[in-house]
Amino acid sequence: MRKIELVYIVEDDLIASYVIKKIVDDHSRIQSSIVYANGLEAFKALEKKDQIPDLILLDINMPVMDGWEFLEAFGNTPKEKDIPVFILSSSIDPEDKKRASTYKNEVKGFFSKPFTDKKLEEILNLLNRL
Model pTM? Predict the structure, then answer.
């Protein structure tokens, strides 16, 4: 099982981001995480290339730059390494899951909120199979 050095948590809801960060930071296989309140903040951090994540947990509905806009920008940017994205959303709209599946190179999974230890384990297990 590989170790994850850095996780980007892209989430605008303060309570959800706190819970996700707590679960991620408490996991023995994850070294650290950074929370970004919208896609633009996360995308700008990626462009700086000084703290490249091993994993991105992405909300869909956010202000400034939503998850879909982030995925468009992210997909059109050359990367030094493959960075898997897992969508965490409160959306129950089947169209969102369908749309997420069109980002095959970026999105490796779609999980409904609330985020739990079990969902993190599922994500880490999926990562091991990639």
Answer: 0.94
